């Protein structure tokens, strides 16, 4: 088999299964594992997949500026946010992560909700400003202009002082083996604190985030208590997540 044919086979398997295992592919194609590893390395260098130990996984889409992301998948984000909003209750301490979907969630919080919301997202704070019964705490720090989120040591220190009933987490990648991942190293550190300091952790993820991997790992998939995603995601895609004990909510 020619190299181009092998590599296309690898990409087809990755698209179908969300991952490829070098030892399995080498046996199926009757070539050495070293040959498959070289193919995977070349495809990774071309930006077509992400290498992991023993094989490769689908690469998460590159993060774009906030204004661009706010105009993408708007219907899916609204549906996901509407479903997630059903989880908030009076009296809760709520950690709200940065991101376009979490900002949409803030816009959908019940007007009469009586709770405390802690966030590093200035856009979410603006969405909550008119809520009469909410205590809203904006974490200080340096503004990441790409994501419109506060980041840095000051943000992390402030965040560490809170214990929340529920956290709504924006994610760039969710993979059953690689875990919860993000494009930003500093934001990954903050999300990790949010996870550790919350009784319930709800990931808000459109279909394109499932089965993908971004560069920085936050935590294993089992750290989530809930996953809210699009209604069109098939049960076989969600099965590995539900088998990890995560409550699935399809919006």
Descriptive account of the structure:
By secondary structure, the protein is an alpha/beta fold. It is built from 10 helices and 16 strands. It has helices at 3-17, 22-29, 33-45, 66-69, 74-85, 100-108, 122-128, 153-159, 185-196, 235-243; strands spanning 19-21, 50-52, 55-59, 93-96, 116-119, 135-138, 142-144, 149-151, 164-170, 173-175, 179-182, 198-204, 212-213, 216-219, 226-229, 247-250. The strands form 4 sheets. A 7-stranded parallel sheet has the order 6-5-4-9-12-15-16, with helices on both faces. Strands 1, 2, 3 and 13 form a 4-stranded mixed sheet that branches. Strands 10-11-14 form a 3-stranded antiparallel sheet, with helices on one face. Helix 1 (3-17) crosses helix 3 and helix 2 (22-29) packs across helix 3 (33-45).
The major pleated sheet works out as: 7 strands, parallel
Oligomer: single chain
Low-pLDDT windows of residues: none
CATH class of the largest domain: Alpha Beta
